[in-house]
Amino acid sequence: MPPREVHIATITSDGTGFYITEPVFFAEPSQEKANYNNYGMAFRIQAPPGAYSVYVKTTSDAADTTVAVSGMQTSRLLGGGSWDSAKLVPRKYIVEARGKEWKYTYVNGRDYLDIEIEPNKTMIPVGIEEIVLQPILPEQREDGTLPTIFTLGDSTVKSYIFNETPMSGWGQVIDPMFNLRKVNVINYSMGGRSFKSAYTEGRLNDILMSGKIGDYLFIQFGHNDESTDELRRFGRGATEAMYETYIKEIYLPAIRARGMIPVLVTPMSRVRGDAAPGYVYTNSFMNRKFPDIMKRSAQESGVTLIDLNSESIKYYNEIGVEATTAIVMSIEAGETPGMTSGGSYANGHPSNKVDGTHFKEALAKQFARIIVTELVKMRQAGDTTSAALASYLKEEVASAALTGDWSEVFTEMAGDTTTGEGAYYRNQIEKLIQLKVMSKDAQGNFYPDMAMTVSEFVVSISKLMNVEESTFAGYPNGELSREVMGAILDDAYHAKFTSKPKYMTDYNGASEAPGEPCYDPYLDPASNCVMYYPLVSWEQLTDTAQIAPHLVSKVKDAYELGLIRSEKGISRGKMVNGTELEPQLTVPREKAAKTLYFMWVLLQVIDVENDVLPNTPPVTTQSSYIDGQYLNVNTPTFTWSFSDADAGDAQRAYQVQGSTDNWQTTAFDTGEVIETRTSYEASAMQDNDNWSIRIRTMDTRGAWSEWAYRRLAIDTTAPTARVEYSTTAMTNQDVIVTIEPNEQVTITNNNGASSYTFSQNGSFTFEFMDRAGNAGTVTASVNNIDKTAPELNIVLDKTTLFPVNHQLETINASVYAEDGMSQIDSVVLTSITSNEPDDGLGGGDKPNDIQGAEYGTLDTSFMLRAERAANGSGRVYTITYTATDKAGNETMVSVTVTVPR
Known about the structure:
The chain has a 6-stranded antiparallel beta sheet. Strands 23, 25, 26, 27, 29 and 30 form a 6-stranded mixed beta sheet that branches. The protein has a 5-stranded parallel beta sheet with strand order 14-12-15-16-17, sandwiched between helices. It is built from 15 helices and 43 strands. Helix 4 (about 240-255) runs parallel beside helix 5, helix 11 (about 455-465) packs parallel to helix 15 (about 590-605) and helix 12 crosses helix 14. Helix content is about 20%, strand content about 25%. The protein is α+β, with helices and mostly antiparallel strands.
C-alpha cells in the first residue's frame, strides 16, 4: 500500500488527548474517491497477527472525523448490505461510529496496526483521547456444524445474477462439486477486486471474522492487480513487490491467525478476443508476473497452491481458438437479454469487443473441474490440505478427477460441441441439455447443424416455459423455419407473460454505483443505456414480404419484442443487427438452442444467481414440540428437518420468526441466516398463549421452502388455585373442599380429583401441574368440624316432694353446659314428664301438676305438685334439658323429682 503523508509536526496535546487542524486537503482530479488525503494523524500500535476489537474515542464528532484501521477504507465499512450480487452473503462486520466513539472488529496480519484519524473538513480540529485493543480469540466450530470453504476473488470467481447472463465465475459453479452435506461453500468474490481492494473494503476481514478454526479460504487475484493505479490510495493495482507483500504479510498471517487454512489459486490467463484459428495461447501475465509470484510465495510459505493459470492455457490450446472464443464473453445479437454496465447485451456486446477476461458458464465449469482435479492430484502427492478438501468432494467428482472421465458429472456436455465450429453455441447447448429441454443421442452427440423440427421445438419450448403444447396447435410438423419459430415464440411469450419482463423495460435495472459493495468497475461502461430492442426497426427489414400472410402479425410482434432478430450480418464482439430476417430459412438445432436460451433468461428474476436449474423447493418440517404445546421456558430451542427432492441439494440457510398476533406483526425474526444448523434457541420469548412460530429453509441453489408453522404457548408462571369449602361454619358433618385453578391443570395427587372430603379437622395439599409443566400447590385447612357432644350437668334444689299435700312446689334447676370446641349454642328445657297421669285417681287429686315451665328456653324455675296416686308406688317427675353446641351436636340430660309413697 502506498505510504500516506500525515503532519506529525502540527500535532498538539493538552495531556488528555492529541489534536490537529488541517488547512488544506489533497485530492487527485477526477479520482477524488480513489486518491485523496486529508492528512491528520496516525498511531502505530504493536499487536501480533490476530483479531481485535478496536475502540477509539475522538475529541471530535463523527461528522467531522474519519477513523480508519491500517489503511481500511472507512466509507466502505459504515453500511450494511451484502457482499454479492444475489444478496445471499450479508455484510456482518461493519464500523460503528456514534458521536465520538468508533468501534472496529479487525483481523491483523502484521505485527502492528495503525489507527488513522483524518478530519472531514478543513480548519476543524480533530483529535483522539483513547485507543483500546481487545484480542478476539479464534472460534471453534460448534458441534454439528459443517466446515466452510470460502472463495475470494475477482470477476472470474464471482457469482453472477441473471441480469448479467451469460457471464459466470468458477466460484459460482464449484459448489456442486462438493458434497454439501459435508461442507459449506460461500463465495465472497466480486468483480473489479484485487488483493488490495478486497482488503481495504473489508471483504477479507468479514471472511476472517466469520470463519471458524479449520475453515478454508481459496484466494485468486491478479487481473485487477494489473491496473496501473497502484499509487492511488484506494486504487486496485499493485506492483509485483506490493502483490507479494499482500500475500505474505497481510493475507496469509491473518488467515492463519484465525485458525483458517489458505489455498492460493493463480489467475487464469486472459484470452485474446481477436485470435485467429491456429493461434497458440500463451500466458497473458507478461508485464507483471503475478502467477509466478503467487507460486513462489506459496512454496516459501508452505501454502497449497492450484496453478489455474498454467492449466487454463493448456485447456485453451486443447479445445482450440474457435471453441475458446465461443465460451469467453463473445456476444452477438440475440444471445441473451442480460446486460453489462454499458447496457443490454441483446444486440451484441455494448463495448464492441470480445471480452477475453470474462467467460460464460461452460468455461466456468471447466475451471472448477481443473481446480478439483488439481486437489485430487495433490492429495495423491501427499498434500494434507488437498487431501482434506478432496474428502469433501462428491464421490463421482473425485472419481472423475482420477480417471479423467467427466461424463457422469457434466452430463450436459456433448461430444460434438466442445471443439471446432460445433462449439459456437456450446454454452447455450449445455444449458438446454442440463435443463432437459434439449437432448443428445445415445452416443452423446448433439448435432448442432441438423435441422430442427417444428414438433421438437414445440416440445422444447413447452418444457422450458411450462406452457401446454396445445398452445402451439396448428403448426404442421416438418423442418422449423424462422417464420414459424417467430410465430411460436410470440405464442409462448403471450401465454407466459402478462407484462413485460424487466429485461425489456429496465435494461436489467440500475447498475451498482462506484463505492457500493457489488460495484464491478471491470464491466466496461463504454456505451451507456444501450437498449434491449432491435437496432433495426421492422420497417427497415428488407424481406418481411416473404413471410406467410397468416404469420406476419405474430412474427412482427415477436421481432418488436426482441424474441427473434436478424441472424444475417451479425457478429460476436460487435453490436450490430442485420436487415434480413430470412423467414423461410430452416433453423438448425444450434440456432434453436440460442433462441431457447434467450427465452430461458427472459423468464428469470433478474437478481437471482444465473446458474440455477429448475429447482424443487425444499420442505421444512418442524420437529420440536407439537402443535398447541405449552412450554415453561422463555428460551425454547426450535429444531427442524430439511428435505429436498433434488439430488445434492442441502440446506444453505434458515429463517425463524415468531408472532403473538396472528402475524400482523413479528415479535422476533432471525433474518436469513446462512448456516446449515437445524436448530435455533430463541431468547426472551414473553409469556403468551398465542405464539406462532414459523421456520423456512433455503437450499444450496437459493430456493426457499414454504413456512412450517407451530402454535405454542409460553407459560413460565406456576398455576394457582382458589379453595372452596362446602361450609366454613362449625359443623358436625364432613367438610368437602374443592379447588378452582386459575388455568387448566392436571391434579397429580388425590387420584386426580379436585375435591377432598375432611371427616375431621386437618389440612390437605393439592398438587397440580399446568399444560406447560409448571407445578403449583394449594393447601386446604379445615378446623370447623366438631363431632363431640357438649357436656351437660343438671342440679335441682329439690329432688323429693314431701309431704304429699297436693300443693305446688317451686323447683330451681342449676344448669351447667360446656363445649371445648365449637362452644355452646343453646341450652333449653326440653320436657317435664310424670310417670302418672296428671289427673289421677285418689282423694284430693288436683289437675295441672306441672306449671310454670317454658319449654324450648333455658327455664330453670318451675312448679311441681306434691301429689301421687294413692295406690301407686310413688310419683316420678322427669326433667330433661338439651344442650346444643354450635356444630349441632346435642346432649340431653334428665333428672328426677320424686313424690314418695
